[in-house]
Every structure is written in C-alpha cells, then in structure tokens.
Amino acid sequence: MFKITRLYSDENGDSRFEETEIPLNDAGDIGALSDAVSAKEVIFREVDPSYDYDFHNAPQRQYIILLDGEIEIETSLGEKRKFGAGEILLVEDTTGKGHKTRNLTPIRRKSVFITLLDE
Predict the structure, then answer these.
(1) N vs C: which end of the chain shows fewer Cβ within 10 Å?
(2) Which of 35, 8, 2 lies closest to 90, judged by CA?
(3) Rounded to whole angstroms, how far apart are CA atoms 78 and 16?
(4) C-beta of residue 111 within 8 angstroms of C-beta of residue 60
(5) What's the number of CA atoms in the CB half-sphere (13 Å) around residue 60?
(6) Full-prediction pTM beyond 0.90?
(7) Which tens digits make up the pLDDT trace of 22-33?
C-alpha cells in the first residue's frame, strides 16, 4: 500500500484530513505498481522560505509531492498536521472554507503538483 493524506471539504464546507492508501500490485522484477491514475498537468513549484499562505482553496484537485522542507497545514476546524519531504497529499478542498499552509523550515521549498482530470 502507498499511504497518502487527503485534504477535502465536508458537507458543511469545513476542510478535513483523511488517511488513505493506494493499493500496489506485484509487477515482478520492477517492483510493485499502482493502477494508472489519469492526470491533466504536472507543475513544478518553489516557494520562499517565509511562505505562509492564509486560508485558501485548492485551485483544482491535485496530488502534491513534497520534495524537501517541512510544512504545516491547518484545516478550517483548527486541526494542524506537519508534512515533510517525500510525503504526498491529495488536495481536493476546491470549495468551502479552505486551509492554511506555511513553511516550517527556512528554505526555498520545492514540490510537484499533479493536477487531476475533472470527475
């Protein structure tokens, strides 16, 4: 299983975290692979060390792969979680009250966004 954290909006518009897993299938000598996920775009991003973004919605459904540094995300309900290099988020709170994101390490943090096709 490949573990990711999902950030979504509930029926009241509050942002929430959910732990989820992507199943992997044995592919022999090349390892274990998930089923293919259709994607729209790949976006590379770098933010300043002082990055501290107040409540906002995700612009689209997307996976975010953190390449370095550490961030804290706060939901509209006040729950805070830390995420570091190598972790993957599925961000789906495109409506509702949104979430906050801030850098915890003073570096120019890099990440990759993989935008998903509309459902």
Answers:
(1) C
(2) 8
(3) 9
(4) no
(5) 14
(6) yes
(7) 999 999 999 999
Q: What are φ and ψ of residue 83, in 5° steps?
A: -135, 140
Integer Cα distance of 65 and 5 in angstroms:
11
**CB 114 within 8 Å of CB 38:** no
**Each residue of 92-103: b (16+ CB within 10 Å) or e?**
bbeebbbbbbeb
Token pair recorded at residue 94: 């495109």
Two structure tokens written together for 34: 């998930």
d(CA 22, CA 111): 20
**Among residues 40, 39, 111, which one has the least CA distance to residue 71?**
111
> Hey, what are 41's tokens?
């775009």
Give the integer Cα–Cα distance in Å for 27 and 6: 26
